[in-house]
Each structure stands twice: as structure tokens, then as C-alpha cells.
Amino acid sequence: MAPPTEHGAHTSGPTRRSLLAGVAALGALGAAGCSRVATASTTEGGDLLGRLKAAGVVRLGIAGEIPFGYIDKNGDLTGEAPELARVIFKRLGIDKVQPVPTEFGSLIPGLNSQQFDVVAAGMYVNPERCAQVIFADPDYQMLDSFIVRKGNPKGLHDYKDIVEKKAKFATGTGYAEIQYAVEAGYKESDILIVPDQVAGLNAVEAGRVDAFAGTALTTREVVKKSSKAEATKAFTPLVDGKPHVDGGAFAFRPTETGLRDAFNVELRKLKKSGELFRILKPFGFTEAEMTDLTAKELCGG
Questions:
Q1: Domain Solute-binding protein family 3/N-terminal: where (predicted)?
Q2: What is the secondary structure of 66-114 as a DSSP string?
Q3: Mind giving me the DSSP string for 113-174?
Q4: Alpha carbon distance 178, 239 (integer Å)
């Protein structure tokens, strides 16, 4: 989860959406019957890029999470990260992308155990994850937003409002928003934890909570067909008292700096030309979510 970027160093807990978000039922799809291309790299910077070129296919770890990376109703791989991967890897000489769906919390372990070659799930970059994988620079940034009842009757616009107005509050399993609310003074045991933004919308519509917190992208998308709820204006959460923006990026095994660096070169070209925004726009991203943040910034150094 939201997912969906922010700019202080978020040093503990999950970021971007859930650590468990995704469709677990998709976990077996693509995992079975895949020939393994990746083995331990034997050259400085890794040799995975060359081996992927030779094989003509790159395996993408996805978490079944709309709009970041998922299998659509027709059984096709899509989402902002897979569509971006198609463009960049084609430019790198790799024509085919193959999905390996798993739970969000299994993406980093799956990457490092070579179940797939790259994480393409819009994963937030934070110091905790940077200790386990290497990230490309973020392809998007994301602020937070609430799902509230129409008209926002309690006037909830940020986590401080949630605390001061003693609002009933929900967010998703493993979401970064748990930490943001706790930092604002909300008691963690009082937070209603639900599986995802759809469940959060249902909780708000049913009156079980006053607000559900998620990324600005996922909240505004999920309320589009609701007659009872709306999304608040995006806002920046605070971490250690400072505004914090999360950035989502592709993740690679720590040995594969060569592949990561080649990916970054193409990503920068797409940013400069404006093509990146054209790729992400169909999935609900706006120009406000385009970013020049770097992985180094978000990793804390």
C-alpha cells in the first residue's frame, strides 16, 4: 500500500502500503514451470543483465496490488511497474517480462532467493529495505489521504486531526500509515487494521470508522464509485516531526549494481522526455506524483 513518497528518512516500520498487500491467491501463478535464469553473480556489478539479454526474459516479482502490479481480469500482467518494466527492459535488450506473483511481504525474500529477477511492485524505498536490497531511483512519489464520509463531517485532514478529534481510525495491514498515526499520538491498539483500501472504504461507508488512511492514489481511485465516501486532499505525514514523502521504486539484489545502474539510465531518459508520466497516467498517477527523488536520499544517505 498503497499503495502512493516522501523525503525524510523513514527508519523503522514498513513504507508504502502494506507489507502484506496483494492477492495471495496469485502466488502460484508464474512461479511454477519458470526456468531459472538468475544464479549467483560472478563478476563485479553482477552479470545478470547479460544473462537476461541472452534469455530474452526478465521475471518480475509483483504483489497483486492495483495499480502497482497485478494480473487483470483477462489474466494479463499490468500495473504501473510492469508497464514501465516493459519499456525499460526492452530498451535494455530484453523483450519479454514474466510475472511471479507473491505477497508483498515476500517480495524481498523472494528476490534474494532468486525466485525472480527484480521487484516490480511500486515498493517504497526506506532504510530498512535498503539494508536488504538495492533500489533504482523512485519512479513516483506519494502523499497520504483519508477516505471519509461525504462532506467530511468531522473535518479530518491529517493525523493531528485524527488524534485531536478522537476519530475512529483504520488503515491497512502493515501500512506505513500505522506508524504515521502513532507518531501523531494515536494509540496503535485503537487502530482498526483491515486488509486493504476496499475494506477500508467499506468500514467508512458502514460507519465503523471515521477515516481510513492510505496513499493519495489508492484512496482517490477506490472512492470513485462510492456514493457515501470521498477522499480528502493529499497531505504530507510527519516523521520525527518533519514532512515525509515516500518514493516507490524497483528493487534488485545487492550484487546486481550493473543491472540497477543500466535501469536508472533508461529511467532518467523517460523522466526527462515526459514518457514516464505518459506510462503511469493511465493508472491514476498525476504530475504531482512525478519525482526527482533519489534512492540515496530515501535510503538515508
A1: 57-287
A2: TTTBEE-TTS-EESHHHHHHHHHHHHTT--EEEEEE--GGGHHHHHHTT
A3: TTSSSEEEEEEEP-HHHHTTSEEPPPSEEE-EEEEEETT-TT---SHHHHHHTT--EEEETT
A4: 12
Per-residue pLDDT of the chain (301 residues; tens, 9 = 90+): 433 332 223 333 343 443 333 333 333 333 333 334 444 445 678 899 999 999 999 999 999 888 999 999 999 999 999 999 999 999 999 999 999 999 888 999 999 999 999 999 999 999 999 999 999 999 999 999 999 999 999 999 999 999 999 999 999 987 889 999 999 999 999 999 998 899 999 999 999 999 999 999 999 999 999 999 999 999 999 988 999 999 999 999 999 999 999 999 999 999 999 999 999 999 999 999 999 999 999 998 6
Nearest to 145 by CA among 124, 173, 166, 175: 175
- Residue 204's CB is within 10 A of a number of other CB atoms, namely 25
As given in the structure block, the three cell numbers for residue 93 are 535488450
Count of other CB atoms within 10 angstroms of residue 57: 18
Cα 123 from chain centroid? 4
| Cα-only R_g, the chain | 19
Write down the H helix ranges in 167-215: 176-183, 197-205
Q: Which residues contact 261 (CB under 8 A, 6 or more apart)?
A: 45
The greatest distance separating any two alpha carbons of the chain, rounded to the nearest whole angstrom, comes to 60
